[in-house]
Specification:
Its main location: membrane. It is a multi-pass membrane protein. Keywords: Cell membrane, Membrane, Transmembrane, Transmembrane helix, Transport. It is found in: Cell membrane. This is Permeases of the major facilitator superfamily. The chain is mainly α. It has three domains: 187 residues, MFS general substrate transporter like domains (Growth Hormone, Chain: A, Up-down Bundle); 56 residues; 218 residues, Growth Hormone, Chain: A, CATH 1.20.1250. It has 17 helices and no strands. Helix 3 runs antiparallel to helix 9 and helix 13 packs across helix 16. The longest helix has 40 residues. The radius of gyration is 22 Å and the shape is globular.
């Protein structure tokens, strides 16, 4: 995606309009990130309502995150062409309509389709809102503005599981989506009244061929991984989809070398820290993306927790994650990125694997400590990987690098849930001790596999030089720090 040219700025809004714009973008980011986790604790309730097995509900999560990954690269170009106000208004409207449709879904297939609609709107909320602020906020205030926008986006995933469980307990799962509707209506009105409309007349033509290659590759890869376990696809179809996805990614590489302005330039991978950080994010985040899906299911299906109780058990993860961020910078300065990420990635993987020892007899205090420790090391992992990936992007690569990084984050979340769901379904079918009332052995095996995948990705960070230590925050967008 071409870099934003700051000279194409909109007229400076009044202080009141600027404040409302900040709240609009922050609220949009909050809605987007909240809906990536709020459904996790509600999946068993949704399954009962829709007449589905709880372990076959991963499509509800995958549809949202995969759609986000697919649409993100297109959003910035669309805002440049059509104007930030029009596209941001459309994003809120589509997200709100998608939420209303989700609340009225009567089958799992309908819910998955409506989550795709919701994901299309959600994917445009942050990139377009950030672009709108970039065009009107004075340069000296941009960092503080982005920090303000980032805070709700960080809070959304933290409170999502607990809020989802609470809503299910006091009302029904439908209200998880219905709460977005009044917020969306107010957002649409405020966008029309207060958001400035800016566009970039010199926007280069969109790399449609490159975009389609990436989109088809991501969708084919996800469907193939989910095909055997959940969709019931034949082995031959799964194999064809895997080959198609690999062919699309290779074709994009050849395409990006040939065209003048590809959607993502391969020159970005000449930056060693970016390429290692991006690949590390892709594979290490598979486990981290699987855990928010697996943990609420484990607690509710195998250990008998209510949705609200399962949501409350996620609070130690969130609290420890927030506390651990205080030590990351000093840790990297002392030990360097290579050592911190290698050791911490293995720790994250071992902690995930430790959930294979979970039992109904496990003391509550020990379970809370286990969850908190996972939250702490997982937060260190995110912060270290993110700052590594973005630290050496120059001004010329900041926009496309950030966009590619956002895509990889959402894709890895989708792959994490896809792989976890497929592995869980496989072990449910092949382990002799697993029954309808005893799914714990299948969960044990799944956590072990997810932990091994994560720990193995430490090898990627071993390619870093030991001298890479400084945390360069001036090129890191605070809204991407989660």
């Amino acid at each position: 995606m071409p870099d934003t040219i700051r000279s194409n700025v909109a007229p400076t809004p009044s202080p009141q309009s600027l404040t409302i714009m900040l709240w609009l973008v922050a609220t949009g980011f909050f809605m987007q990130t909240l809906d990536s986790t709020i459904v996790n604790t509600a999946l068993p309730a949704m399954a009962r309502s829709l007449g589905e097995a709880p372990l076959r509900m991963q499509g509800v999560v995958i549809a949202y995150s995969l759609t986000m990954a697919t649409v993100i690269p297109f959003s910035g170009w669309l805002a440049d062409k059509l104007g930030t106000r029009h596209v941001f208004f459309s994003a809120i409207l589509i997200f709100t309509i998608g939420s209303l449709l989700c609340a009225n879904a009567h089958t799992l297939m309908q819910l998955v389709i409506y989550r795709v609609v919701q994901g299309v709107g959600g994917a445009m909320l942050l990139p377009v809102g950030r672009l709108a602020l970039l065009r009107v906020v004075p340069a000296e205030r941009y960092l503080s503005a982005m920090s303000f926008v980032a805070i709700p986006g960080l809070i959304g995933p933290l409170i999502g599981p607990t809020l989802g469980g609470w809503i299910v307990q006091i009302a029904s799962w439908h209200w998880i989506f219905l709460i977005n509707v009044p917020v969306g209506v107010i957002g649409c009105i405020a966008t029309r009244l207060f958001m400035t409309d800016s566009r970039n007349p010199s926007t280069a033509p969109f790399d449609l061929a490159g975009y389609l290659l990436l989109a088809v590759g991501m969708i084919a890869l996800t469907i193939s991984l989910d095909g055997l376990a959940d969709l019931g696809l034949q082995h031959a179809i799964v194999l064809v989809l895997l080959v198609l996805s690999m062919a699309c990614f290779v074709a994009y590489g050849l395409h990006a070398v040939r065209v003048a302005q590809p959607i993502f330039s391969l020159d970005l991978f000449k930056i060693h820290t970016f390429s290692v950080g991006l690949l590390g994010n892709l594979f290490a985040r598979i486990g981290s993306g699987a855990m928010p899906y697996l943990l609420p299911l484990l607690l509710q299906i195998s250990l008998g927790y209510s949705a609200f109780q399962a949501g409350l058990m996620m609070l130690p993860v969130a609290a420890a994650g927030m506390l651990s961020k205080r030590i990351v910078t000093s840790l990297i300065m002392k030990r360097g990125y290579r050592k911190v990420l290698m050791v911490n990635t293995v720790l994250v993987g071992l902690t995930m694997a430790s959930f294979s020892l979970t039992s109904a007899e496990q003391p509550l205090w020990l379970r809370l400590v286990q969850l908190a420790f996972f939250g702490g090391v997982n937060s260190i992992q995110f912060t270290a990987m993110n700052t590594l990936t973005l630290k050496d992007l120059g001004t010329g690569g900041a926009s496309s690098g950030n966009s590619l990084f956002s895509l990889v984050q959402m894709l890895s979340m989708s792959l994490g849930v896809t792989i976890a769901g497929a592995v869980l379904a496989t072990f449910t079918g092949i382990l002799p001790r697993v029954t309808a009332t005893n799914s714990l052995p299948a969960f044990h095996a799944t956590f072990l596999c997810v932990g091994i995948i994560t720990a193995a990705s430490a090898w990627i960070f071993a390619q870093l030089g030991p001298e890479i230590r400084a945390v360069n925050t001036k090129k890191t967008d605070p809204s991407e720090a989660h």
